[in-house]
Amino acid sequence: MKIGIDKIGFYTPHLYVDMNKLAEARGVEPAKFTIGIGQSEMSVAPLTQDPVTLAANAALDMLDETDRAHIDMVLFGTESGIDHSKAAAVYVHRLLDLKPEARAVELKQACYGATAAIQLAKGHIALNPDSKVLVLASDIARYGLNTPGESTQGAGAVALIISANPRVLELDDETVYYTSDIMDFWRPVYSNTAYVDGKFSNEQYMAFFKQVWEQYKEKSNRSIHDMEAICFHMPYTKMGLKALRQILDEGNEADQQRLQDHYQTSTTYNRNVGNIYTGSLYLSLLSLLEQAENIQSGARIGMYSYGSGAVGEFFSGVLAEHFRENLYLDRHRELFAERKEISIAEYEEQFVKTLPTDGSTLELDITKDPASICVTGITEHMRQYTNKNK
Ligand code: COA
Predict the structure, then answer these.
(1) CB atoms near residue 360 (< 10 Å)
(2) Distance CA 284, CA 96 (A)
(3) What is the band of 367 on the pLDDT scale with cuts at 50, 70, 90?
(4) In angstroms, rounded to a whole number, what is the distance separating the alpha carbons of residues 239 and 36?
(5) Omega of the bond prior to 310 within 30 degrees of 0, cis?
(6) 302: left (phi over 0), alpha (psi -120 to 50) or beta
(7) Does 233 qualify as catalytic in the annotation?
(8) Are 283 and 270 in contact (CB under 8 A)?
């Protein structure tokens, strides 16, 4: 039985900053951000969007009645969750009107959570072929104003339906993973920004890639030649390219050209959204599928997932026969076209705004947020959500 990605949706907030202007404001050469880091724009979440609403908005339009009847598991990968106890998946389950006979759980391992969710979903479907699993990867990446990580922030979510007989990507059985307890990036429960040893995390990202790539080749008997493209976890678009370059000499000239060309295409959305942590790998897959005109059904895509701390995984899948017909290119094109640029001063003002933590009530103005699902405020420590279009 083939199991894999049946649908893939995406959402990012409607506000962004231009990285050239951020560079000017921070007194660095714009080329450092646009070429050295490889980011052009960075999504900024208003207070009316949090990881719950981003995920719900990513899934909302792609669900139909058949999905609602068959989804019996909601797995939410995030590293910027809103509660230490309650799973973000439970809020989304309600906001999307899913049936109550379902499991809803949050998974955490830095940027790796959604990959674990996909593999767990695969096992669930192998035992329950009629089930569908909704996997959500949603985050707001915050390193802090004026920090080295600031240029690698972002906000957004990817929603995936995992099912039997998938219409987008059939996952291969071979998958390999690797865990090692290291401190390259972490966020203690008392901090709303991440701690990171940037250089060390870059080195580990590269080393884990080499590690799992070697394991994958051995387990699958495949080589670089079998990969039409490789998608990478993408904290910033230059990062995956550095990892890819480590193995390019295993291929001939045609392999090298193909993989580098597809890599560039796979950065299209990430370059304009920024780091969305758990969703970054899947946003790069979405960029590739929606933007590469020369990619055919039957092609094999490699996927490298990395979550600091650290867990790495390499897996692959084969594009389904009519995958292109099952994408939401127009919707995503519209999402980007309707975004609004804000100034650096507005972004800084936005960055320091938070919901009250003293139990007081705050009502937010959601009229300026075009998203269907928004945070409307907080009362007695409980976030309030609405779907405007219901
Ligand atoms: N034109 C073009 N490139 C330029 C440049 C210019 N004017 N100025 C600098 N650069 C290049 C540098 O050469 C470097 O490229 P290289 O890595 O290929 O050598 C790149 O821009 C970044 O410069 P660097 O000085 O290393 O940046 P930094 O120390 O300010 O921080 C990170 C970069 C990624 C370490 C930092 O943003 C960070 O900590 N991010 C969060 C952690 C992260 O994303 N980790 C990834 C693994 S999950």
Answers:
(1) 11
(2) 25
(3) very high
(4) 10
(5) yes
(6) beta
(7) yes
(8) yes
Question: 50-76 in b/e burial notation, b at 16+ Cβ within 10 A?
Answer: bbbbbbbbbbbebbeeebeebbbbbbb
Known catalytic membership, residue 79: yes
**Mean pLDDT taken over the chain:** 97
Query: CB neighbours of 213 closer than 8 A, spacing ≥ 6?
Result: 247, 304, 314
154 Cα–ligand 1 center, Å: 16
Long-range contacts of 344-347 (CB under 8 A, 24+ apart): 344/17, 344/21, 344/22, 344/25, 347/15, 347/17, 347/22, 347/44
> Where do the domains of the chain lie, and which CATH numbers do they carry?
3-169+327-387 (3.40.47.10), 170-321 (3.40.47.10)
Separation CA 77–CA 117 (nearest Å) = 7
Taking CA atoms only, the protein residue closest to ligand 1 atom 16 is: 36
Answer whether 270 contacts ligand 1 (Cβ < 6 A). Answer: no
Residue range 299-341, pLDDT digits in tens: 999 999 999 999 999 999 999 999 999 999 999 999 999 999 9
pTM: 0.97
